[in-house]
Amino acid sequence: MTTTPTTTPAPPAVRRPASSRRRVLGLVVCVLALVVVCVLSVTFGSRVVTWSDVVAGVLHPDPDDIAQAAVASRVPRTLLGLVVGAALGLAGAVLQGLTRNPLADPGILGVSFGASLAVVVGIAWFGLSTVLGYVWVAFLGAAVTMAVVYAVGSVGRGGATPLKLALAGAAVTAAVTSMISMVLLTRTDVLETFRFWQVGSLGRAETGAVLTVAPFLVVGAVLAVAVARGLDALALGDDLATGLGQHTGTVRALGALAAVLLSGAAVAVAGPIAFVGLVMPHLARGFTGPSHRWVLPYSAAFGAVLLVAADVLGRVVARPQELQVGIMTALLGAPVLIAIVRRTKVREL
């Protein structure tokens, strides 16, 4: 009996997911979201304006028209929200990559509060009153605080583990916060100046302030992108990173400098704003995976969208007054962080 040979049908071709294509598409969606929040930011506020006022206020504002003047004042505020949000998102992603600590951000590690202490001391005893002066002392405070946290966290067996760095950051934050209170209690004349800045605010934004910090933020962003491959290698451990040709000391030094520039400049112009640097990298990894070449731009875009959206909500929910953006990011960021932790169990770095 002869049998008819059978042919096994070829399995259907499995289409590999176009991960890079989806990531690029995600960035396009982020850009569109940025455009939307920018439009909302110049449209909504304590004063209701019409579309014609928005167009005229952005293109050629009439200073005698109150509605157009209100729109014109929202433009630098929107720009400041974009650059500060992007800077904090980038700084958080870099710090989490450097320390391999999913809880690392400029606030948790005390970097923002170190910058705040330096600004308070500068205002109280050195008469600082310009954004450029705030920026330089904020850099100094952020750098010293980061060095202290890393030194304290490196003591003992095992070196600078993620848990020890988090504990060191919490301890330094508590100490620095006490120092800030001590300075303000003895110099009540600077309390009013410091009060709104401390909670994080974009309300006094000026175009000159944005231009002042822009060069520092650009340098910090370039350094962050430059160490992206190094951060991926550090996630595998120092020995493997060295075996892959990475100079771990150089990566850490450049990454720390990037974090200091980004967080110090952001704190100098807007005050210590919490949750942006902590939450946005986790949200970004949910879309991109662990590669820092994608986590960094996503974190920057998400941070900018969150901060501008939080500023708009703060202006709308408390009309005719407004809630400071630092309060709104805490209100928005905490539920998002809890949801991320519950759904993803905090992805390994």
Q: What structural category characterises the helix and strand content?
A: mainly alpha
**Shape summary:** globular
What is the N-to-C order of secondary-structure elements (H for helix, E for strand)?
Answer: HHHHHHHHHHHHHH
User: What is the number of beta strands?
Assistant: 0
Distance between the termini: 63 Å
Major sheet description: none
Strand content: under 5%
Catalogue the unreliable spans.
1-18
Mean pLDDT: 82
Rg from Cα: 23 Å
Short description:
This protein is 73% helix and 0% strand. With 349 residues, the chain is mainly α.
Detailed description of the structure:
The chain contains 14 helices and no strands. It is mainly α. Helix 3 packs antiparallel against helix 13 (292-316), helix 12 (276-288) packs across helix 13 and helix 13 packs across helix 14. The longest helix has 34 residues, at 66-99. The chain starts with 18 loop residues before the first helix and ends in a 5-residue tail after the last helix.
